[in-house]
Amino acid sequence: MFKVLHTCGGARVGKLKTKHGTIETPVFLPVATKSSVKTLDSRDLEYLNIRAIISNAFLLYLKPGVDVIEKAGGIHKFMGFPHVIFTDSGGFQIIREGFVVKIRRDGIIFRSPFDNSKHFLTPESILEIQEKLGSDVAMVLDYCPEYTLDRNIIKKATELTTEWARKSLEHRNEINFKGLLFGIVQGGVFRDLREKSVKDLVDLNFDGYAIGGLSIGEPKDEMLDIVSFTSELLPEDKPRYFMGLGSPVELLECIERGVDIFDSAFPTRNARHGTAYTYKGKINLNKGRYKKDFSPIDDSCKCYVCKNHSRAYIHHLLKVKEYSAMRLITIHNLFFLNDLLEKCKYYIKKGEFEEFKQNFIKNYQSQRPKE
Ligand SMILES: [Zn+2]
Fold first, then answer.
1. How far is the CA of 317 from the centre of ligand 1 (A)?
2. Closest by CA position to 85, among listed 46, 119, 133
3. Contact of 253 with 220, CB cutoff 8 Å
4. pLDDT digits (tens, 9 = 90+) for 283-319
């Protein structure tokens, strides 16, 4: 199911086999929360050579409803994307975005953000939803509290996450769930809790492991330390997934620490606000200095936006609030990240990843003081 093909230090190139094809790792999954990568359609995703995305089971359960997607023949047919679809349980959004009414031992009671109706999700029911959607890789329901140094809160949340993970795995056999199922490691910044979480989840034997509860406000050094620590405890022959990380520099730092899969709404959200990635750092195309800048977003980028349009044109589209501005920058940002990951794979295979990473970061941060 997962095979590591090359390593360079901690970084690795691997292959993950799913029921909708095999993907190469490291991979970045664009976020299609409500079954659409915002501003793009499936033809754009095809152009971008995107072979895996992540959607959100909890939001699709609320709208349009699982029955609608089931009737359409599953989420792949519904959204016209024939490749790999990961689904997040949605536990993270329910808790973070304030929809929770109560967290019980057996599940989460919450209110719908659409119509305020009351719902109850359990580890079992969220897996059934993901099966009906036709998910290729499903995430268990987990409990990730706000960033805190209160050990007791994190300890309780980690224990509950493990209990829910056990229930998910048992239920997987009962309903004959056909996708892969990933457990989620919690434990905050407490090493002993991380260690216990990993041990308990690895004993349960999931198809892959997400490193959860990070990139939620902890200092960056702490985050990287915990990633290294957790990654080293996880089995080598299973994929490791950092949920919610999408800044180019952090991607490379975490690839170096053995992470294989990433997702984040930031590259596409940033794009909608005018921020584009370049090999010389992020640029904000709203700024006046781009008004007469007729160069492409990135000189070295081969995406059709960079081949056909200038910074000045996109700056103008942003200023007059044309939707196409958001779309063009989204296309560029996703192309950029894919290109970056292709380069990572190339240099891991060559055994020169560390050097590549350092050069990339040096160039990427060279423009930072100006923005
Ligand atoms: Zn481009």
1. 16
2. 133
3. no
4. 999 999 999 999 999 999 999 999 999 999 999 999 9
Phi, psi of 56 (to 5 degrees): -125, 115
User: What is the 99 CA–ligand 1 centroid distance (Å)?
Assistant: 37
The C-alpha atoms of residue 291 and residue 310 are separated, in whole angstroms, by: 10
Cα(348) to centroid of ligand 1, in Å? 24
Residue range 27-264 in CATH 3.20.20.105 = yes
CATH 3.20.20.105-classified regions of the chain? 27-264
Cα–Cα distances (Å) from 269 to 35, 47, 285, 326, in that order, read 15, 20, 14, 9
For the entire predicted model, the pTM comes to: 0.97
Q: Report the number of secondary-structure helices (H) and strands (E) in the chain.
A: 15, 16
Active site residues: 88, 263
Collapsing DSSP to helix, strand or coil, 12 comes out as strand
CA of residue 7 to ligand 1 center, whole Å: 29
